């Protein structure tokens, strides 16, 4: 019996959760905005998410990372989740997906 976890499947579930979280100032989810830099899953089903905010003094700087952690932790397969905020590289509109740019009328 294989003990290897299906990280691709879990990754998709995590992305789905991330796409349900919106930046309060921009009507686009944080994933499409490009705020998620990386998602790591280890063999113990512990998730680490490296993300940024649109600005260092973003009004949701306190609450958004907690919301991300809680929603990811709510997935059955996830044992623990931790969000690390980074401003390196700083977020820019270049990181937004085509979908987000389209949504905001930037294309």
Question: Which descriptors apply to this entry?
Answer:
107 residues, alpha+beta, GMP Synthetase, Chain A, domain 3, 3-stranded mixed sheet, 3 strands, 17% strand
Chart the SSEs and their pairings.
Blueprint: H1 7-18, E1 36-41, E2 46-51, H2 63-73, E3 80-85, H3 98-103
Parallel strand pairs: 2-3
Antiparallel strand pairs: 1-2
Please tell me about this protein's structure.
It holds the Pfam family FeS_assembly_P. This is FeS assembly SUF system protein. Residues 12-85 form the MIP18 family-like domain. It comes from Formosa agariphila (strain DSM 15362 / KCTC 12365 / LMG 23005 / KMM 3901 / M-2Alg 35-1). This protein is an alpha+beta fold and 107 residues long. The chain has helices at residues 7-18, 63-73, 98-103, and strands at 36-41, 46-51, 80-85. Strands 1-2-3 form a three-stranded mixed sheet, with helices on one face. A hairpin with a 4-residue loop joins strand 1 and strand 2.
By DSSP, the count of extended strands is 3
Q: What would the CATH topology be?
A: GMP Synthetase, Chain A, domain 3
Helix content: 25-40%
Strand content: 15-25%
As an assembly, this protein is single chain
Supply the CATH class. Answer: Alpha Beta
CATH superfamily: Fe-S cluster assembly (FSCA)
At CATH level 2, the architecture is 2-Layer Sandwich
Number of helices: 3
Spell out the helices and strands N to C.
HEEHEH
Q: Strand count, sense and closure of the main sheet? A: 3 strands, mixed
Order of strands, main sheet, comes to 1-2-3
Protein name: FeS assembly SUF system protein
Domain MIP18 family-like: 12-85
Pfam families: FeS_assembly_P
InterPro entries: Fe-S_Maturation_MIP18, FSCA_dom_sf, MIP18-like
């Amino acid at each position: 019996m294989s003990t290897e976890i299906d990280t691709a499947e879990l990754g998709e579930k995590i992305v789905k959760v991330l796409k349900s979280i919106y930046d309060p100032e921009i009507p686009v989810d944080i994933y499409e905005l490009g705020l998620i830099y990386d998602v790591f899953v280890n063999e113990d089903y512990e998730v680490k998410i490296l993300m940024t905010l649109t600005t260092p003094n973003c009004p949701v700087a306190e609450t958004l990372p907690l919301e991300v952690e809680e929603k990811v932790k709510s997935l059955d397969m996830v044992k623990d989740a931790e969000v690390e905020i980074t401003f390196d590289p700083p977020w820019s509109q270049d990181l937004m997906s085509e979908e987000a740019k389209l949504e905001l009328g930037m294309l």
